[in-house]
Amino acid sequence: MSAARDPRPLTGEPLALDLLNTRWNREGTVQDLLADTDGLAVWLATNGLDDRFAADAATLRHTLRARDALRSAVDGPLENGAPLVDAVLDHGRIRATLTPEGPGERAEFDDEAWGPAWLAARNYLELLATAPDRIRGCAHESCVLHFFDTSRNGTRRWCSMAACGNRAKASRHYARSKEA
Q1: Which of 146, 175, 151, 178 is nearest to 24 (CA)?
Q2: How much is the pLDDT for 41?
Q3: Strand partners, 137
Q4: CA nearest 146: which of 10, 4, 7?
Q5: How far apart, in Å, are the Cα atoms of 141 and each of 24, 25, 138?
Q6: Average pLDDT of the segment spanning 11-37
Q7: Alpha-carbon distances, residue 35 vs 16, 42, 47, 100, 101 (angstroms)
Q8: Is the dihedral angle over the CA atoms 19, 20, 21, 22 positive or is it negative?
Q9: Is the pLDDT of residue 37 over 50?
Q10: How far apart, in whole angstroms, are the C-alpha atoms of residue 13 and residue 160?
Q11: 22: nearest Cα among 98, 108, 38
Q12: At what angle do helices 57-75 and 78-89 cross, to 10 degrees?
């Protein structure tokens, strides 16, 4: 069974931020990809997780809990979000392994339904360890999307220059022409 096309305006961000981006605004209305298990199936497929995890009610419930925890940590004070992210992380662990290729790691979960939620929370820790200042929300006032700034000088402001960046430019141009 192939999942439907992902309707979101921004995909391809690290897993934690991609989970946050399952809510977005379209023409002033909040859209939510995770409104049901069909949307969860799309998100799992987009992130290459559909072969490991079921798009069922339990996985959806846990994934929504992780999204709320991540939103609290990313958009609010870290001290408020940290216990919520930790509560998600309590449902899994990393097991060190030795493979024929050498040392490795494998994620283990107390319930497989926690897998996607745990992986997203773990990814957030990795982003914090790598470059916490590069975790950003779009600068457009009506946009709720997040991205990991991979630009060379770290000055990316928009989720997409073609969408939000262009709207901001058009708005500034309109304001200047109105003043003239």
Answers
A1: 146
A2: 98
A3: 146
A4: 10
A5: 13, 11, 8
A6: 96
A7: 18, 11, 18, 42, 41
A8: positive
A9: yes
A10: 12
A11: 38
A12: 150
